[in-house]
Automatic annotation (TrEMBL):
<dbReference type="InterPro" id="IPR051582">
    <property type="entry name" value="LRR_extensin-like_regulator"/>
</dbReference>
<keyword id="KW-0677">Repeat</keyword>
<keyword id="KW-0964">Secreted</keyword>
<protein>
    <submittedName>
        <fullName>LRR domain containing protein</fullName>
    </submittedName>
</protein>
<keyword id="KW-0732">Signal</keyword>
<dbReference type="GO" id="GO:0005576">
    <property type="term" value="C:extracellular region"/>
</dbReference>
<keyword id="KW-0433">Leucine-rich repeat</keyword>
<dbReference type="InterPro" id="IPR032675">
    <property type="entry name" value="LRR_dom_sf"/>
</dbReference>
């Protein structure tokens, strides 16, 4: 039995107009307020070591008992979990699957053979462009020394680029444009 009820195109157009009119009337925006940006920056500054870099004997503590294919993937796990903890808002749940030891399966994380040892798989790229994520960059990201591509453009990250980024010697593409960062890049970077 066929249904005789159809949505005419004009009804859809009217509904769309009403929806978008509502958004413009309510001044709907996903942008951070100055107060939210200040809160995120303050949160980052409270987590930074004195010089903003990772100490040589740095060790991040985590309770999860997992094994990793190699030490570099373990460090990438530590860095990515620290980034996830530094996120204030992830409305599209980009980091929702960032659990467990298989960091190569995380959304926006790309692995490749290590340049100095093709038998090792390493995190070579992080791409979270246009994810609408709000947060700050933790110093632990300096542990991902194999990263060549780091894209975070068009998000709502605030604060500074940590000095630990100078450890990312293989960086080829670094795009953090269209965020709310302040301050200078690390000198060596």
């Amino acid at each position: 039995m066929a249904s005789n009820y159809h949505y005419p195109f004009t009804h859809l157009t009217t509904l769309s107009f009403i929806f978008f009119s509502f958004l413009s009337i309510t001044n709907f925006s996903l942008a951070l307020t100055d107060a939210e940006a200040s809160f995120i920056a303050q949160r980052q500054l409270l987590t930074l070591p004195e010089n903003g870099d990772l100490p040589n004997d740095f060790e991040y503590e985590f309770d999860l008992v997992v094994t990793f294919a190699n030490e570099r993937l373990r460090k990438a796990y530590i860095a990515l979990q620290a980034l996830k903890d530094a996120i204030y808002s992830d409305p599209y749940n980009f980091t929702g699957n960032w659990v467990g030891a298989n960091v190569c399966a995380y959304t926006g994380v790309f692995c490749a053979p290590a340049l100095d040892d093709p038998k090792l798989s390493v995190v070579a790229g992080v791409d979270l462009n246009h994810a609408d994520i709000a947060g700050h960059l933790p110093v632990e990201l300096g542990l991902m020394t194999d990263v060549a591509l780091f894209h975070l453009n068009s998000n709502r990250f605030c604060g500074i680029i940590p000095e630990s980024f100078k450890r990312l010697k293989l960086m080829h593409e670094f795009d953090v444009s269209n965020n709310r960062f302040v301050g200078a890049f690390p000198k060596e970077f």
